[in-house]
Amino acid sequence: MITLYTAPSRWGLASVSPACMELETWLRIAELPYQTALATAQDLAQAPYGKIPFIEEAGQKWGDTALIIERFRQTQGVDLEAGLSQADRAIALAFRRLIKEHLYWGGIAIRYRDEENWQDYQNLVLTLVPSHWSKAQSVAFAEKFRQSILQQMTQQGLGRLSDADLYQLITADLQALSNFLADKPFFMGDRPTTLDATAYGHIGNFIEPPYSSPIVDFARQKTNLCDHYQRMSARFFADKETEQKASMLVTKLAQPLDSALAEEAGPIGLSMNEL
Ligand SMILES: N[C@@H](CCC(=O)N[C@@H](CS)C(=O)NCC(=O)O)C(=O)O
């Protein structure tokens, strides 16, 4: 059995890590059975390439989404690109790189560079921390993690840009994706391919979290990208949505009714009628 080491599921997303959500979606499109494990700080430190997602299979760990997918292509004979021409494969690969190597950093800026959003997002980073750590240790870990991610963004180059310049470049990526998807059900036509898994994991992580940013506003206005996100959720994650709604209901019913009702219902939140 494949174990996928991933980040927590929130806001209706399979994972708050776009790359983890991409790989989980790919496994579902490919219909490969897997189980998930929440990565801890220690898992991350020992992960191949020091990042999530990674998988464990038959006692061996494998890292990097693209390499894992390639490995499954070779070992399991799964090729989601089967039937695409060489030119279409090249286009799909270029879009995947655009999403993972460029657009991704726009999402990093929203969570890690914006002070207000970070105040909330750090709670998710803290889920990596073992429960026996003290509060001071945990807070220090979250801050160090933040600085390491922001440093990666500076080294990549996009971290050196002003918010206005970053907006210009990142929204151009979103516009290009929207133009390319146009009115097709999936990026490469009638069937989902790896690019749909990549786009789904990343676009979802822009539009679902309750973080304010002009980039998020722009993404939410791209109706065909939002519709693609909904289509992928309904087709591949209908079970997770039901699961999350059920666990939110239990949490809300455990709260005093007034505060549960006062809470704003997010994209997967419960409306007052559902309560
Ligand atoms: N190219 C890698 C990128 C993975 C990646 O960037 N993972 C992030 C979470 S989305 C991570 O582990 N960041 C922690 C770190 O860089 O220390 C893949 O697609 O698997």
From TrEMBL:
Residues 172-232 form the Metaxin glutathione S-transferase domain. InterPro entries: FAX/IsoI-like, Glutathione-S-Trfase_C_sf, Glutathione_S-Trfase, Metaxin_GST, Mito_Protein_Transport_Metaxin, Thioredoxin-like_fold, Thioredoxin-like_sf. Residues 18-117 form the Thioredoxin-like fold domain. Pfam families: GST_C_6, GST_N_4. This is Glutathione S-transferase family protein. It comes from Limnothrix redekei LRLZ20PSL1.
